[in-house]
Every structure is written in C-alpha cells, then in structure tokens.
Specification:
Layout lengths: L14 E5 L3 H7 L4 H21 L4 E8 L7 H24 L3 E5 L7 H14 L6 E8 L1 H15 L8 H5 L11 E4 L18 E3 L10 H13 L10
Parallel strand pairs: 1-2, 1-5, 2-4, 3-4, 5-6
Helix pairs in contact: 1-2, 2-3, 3-4
Bound molecules: 3-methylbut-3-enyl trihydrogen diphosphate (2 copies) and magnesium ion (MG).
Length: 238
C-alpha cells in the first residue's frame, strides 16, 4: 500500500494487460546474463500476480512470450521454455489456493510438449476457480490471433453477412472483455503485436521501470493514472 494514494477513490479496471518487458536490459545494466534477468523477472511476476488480483482486477493478461520471440537465440528460447515449465508446476498450488483461474492465449506450435503439458495441467487444476482470471499470452501474436479467428469463421461456415464485433470476439483465443488498461514496462512505446483486437480502446501506460523492478507500488501508480483518464470511446463528454 502507498500512503500517498487514496484507495477509496480509485477506479478499478476490469481487464488489465501487461507487456512484461525489460528483463534483458535490466540484467545487462547489472552485468549479469539475460537468462538470469528472465529468472528474476519471472519471480517478480509470480509475486505480483496475487497483489494485482487482490486489487479487484477481474482479468489480467500477461504477455510472456510472443510468436516473434522464437527469432531469439536458441539458448534464450530454450531457457524461457524451461522457465515456463518450472513456474507453471511450482506455482500451481498457489493459483489453486488463491482461487485464480489460469488460461492461455496463443498457438501450440512450435511450443515443446513439456510446456504444453505443464500449461494444460495448470488450466485443468484451476478451471473452476472464481477469484479472477490470469491469461498468460505465450507464443501469442495479435495478428496470428486475428488470422486464426478468421480461419475458424471460414471453416465454421457461419453466414459472415450478419457477423458482428461481438460475434467475432467468440472466435478469438479466449472470450474476454476488452482491455481497459495496458501497461508496458521497460520504456518502449509500442505494443509489439499484443492483443490487437482487445486493446482498441485501452488506456496505455508506459513506465520506464524495467520489469524486475516493477512492484505493487508501481502498479498502484498505474491505477492512479488510469483513474484520472477521461475515457470517451468516440463519444462526447456530457
Ligand atoms: C521481456 O524481456 C521478456 C520476453 C520477451 C520473453 P526482454 O527479454 O524483451 O527484455 P529487453 O526488452 O531485451 O530488455
Ligand atoms: C514483447 O516484447 C513481447 C513480450 C514482452 C513477451 P519484445 O521485447 O519481444 O518486443 P520488441 O522486440 O521490443 O518489439
Ligand atoms: Mg523486450
């Protein structure tokens, strides 16, 4: 908790999305390997998730690996894949205890089987939980998601003349509400193919803090900033 924030006045977004970025640069600044930066970033993330959900957020989407991240060096990709397996296994009991439902967005191919198995176990173990949704976007790409939705629509044979925005949403990887607040740590001012459909009217927040240093106080600052935003959705303020 941050003494300078009046918590009773905060507007709590329904869906928060975070681009977990800056692990590599954080490590470089400290003269340690990028891989170690991912380990520390990932520990930070697992600590931060229960805090964020305790603030009343209903859906938290986390960009942990993009379809494009497979372009990275083999050693880094392999390390991240191993990290996913160990985190999903290790944290399973905590998600169960915290009543959080874990879901995933992204393509299976070319994820290793070990990652898919650990993912599926976590999804299965938490599927009836009711305390909020944590959506890991892993091997996720916004364009891939839209392309995959279009293919599913075509294959379903549905009459596209009557298809609405709302109908389209059902063909995305997960049927979730639009993002209200999108945070990207690490200071880059772009959203790198993240939730292209769902971010249409999101409020963006771009702290310079690199992810390993992004903690509860910084998250609360993001909510404070969100509270001050005037969301109009194309309308005119009355
Ligand atoms: C984000 O940190 C984590 C992943 C993309 C998996 P980066 O690895 O992109 O860190 P920077 O941006 O190079 O600092
Ligand atoms: C976006 O970060 C993907 C994740 C954080 C998982 P990147 O570091 O891969 O994005 P770019 O390369 O800076 O656009
Ligand atoms: Mg990056």
């Amino acid at each position: 908790m941050n003494d300078s924030i009046d918590y009773s006045q905060l507007k709590i977004p329904t869906h928060v999305a975070i681009i977990v970025d800056g692990n590599g640069r954080w490590a470089k600044e400290r003269g340690i390997s990028r891989l170690k930066g991912h380990d520390i970033g990932s520990d930070n993330l697992q600590k931060l998730i229960p805090y964020i959900m305790s603030r009343g957020i209903k859906v938290l989407s986390l960009y942990v690996f993009s379809t494009e991240n497979f372009k990275r060096a083999r050693a880094e990709v392999d390390h991240l894949m191993d990290l996913f397996v160990s985190i999903y296994k290790k944290e399973l009991k905590n998600y169960v205890r915290n009543n959080l439902k874990v879901i995933f967005s992204g393509r299976d191919d070319p994820l290793p089987k070990s990652v898919i198995d650990a993912r599926d176990e976590l999804v299965e173990a938490t599927k009836n939980n009711t305390g909020g949704i944590v959506n890991f976007c892993m091997n996720y790409g916004g364009r891939a998601e839209i392309m995959d939705a279009v293919k599913r629509i075509v294959h379903s044979g549905v009459d596209v003349n009557n298809l609405t925005d709302e109908d389209f949403r059902h063909y995305l990887y997960q049927d979730l509400p639009d993002v209200d607040l999108m945070i990207r740590t690490g200071g880059e001012l772009r959203f790198s193919n993240f939730l292209l459909w769902q971010n249409s009217y999101a409020e963006f927040y771009f702290p310079k803090t690199k992810f390993p240093d992004f903690g509860p106080e910084e998250f609360d600052q993001a909510i404070l900033e969100y509270t001050s935003r005037d969301r109009r959705f194309g309308g005119i303020k009355q």
